[in-house]
Design a protein that fits this description.
With 79 residues, the chain is mainly alpha-helical. The chain has 2 helices and no strands. The longest helix is centred in the middle third of the chain and has 27 residues. It is rod-shaped, with a radius of gyration of 29 Å.
Length: 79
């Protein structure tokens, strides 16, 4: 879901940057800075969602330490 949100924000930001849609002059912000803000927010949303999904898929397993049984036979003499 976050990847989709990032894509939507990026596309809307790119539309505002290129001037395909212009905001009325009565708004307190110009369309180009708003486009850059939306584009950067979209990129951050995509990167964060990829990092979070990667952390979810990584699994760590731990095994108890292996202990060998003690030797009961005497060691061999090797010459």
């Amino acid at each position: 879901m976050s990847i989709g949100l990032g894509i939507v924000l990026g596309v809307v930001g790119a539309i505002f940057i290129t001037g395909a849609i212009d905001i009325p002059a009565s708004w307190p912000i110009d369309s180009e800075p708003l486009g850059w803000i939306l584009l950067i927010a979209g990129i951050i949303a995509i990167v964060l969602s990829l990092v979070i999904n990667r952390q979810r898929t990584q699994r760590t397993t731990s095994e108890p330490p292996r202990t060998d049984p003690p030797r009961t036979d005497p060691p061999r003499n090797t010459y």
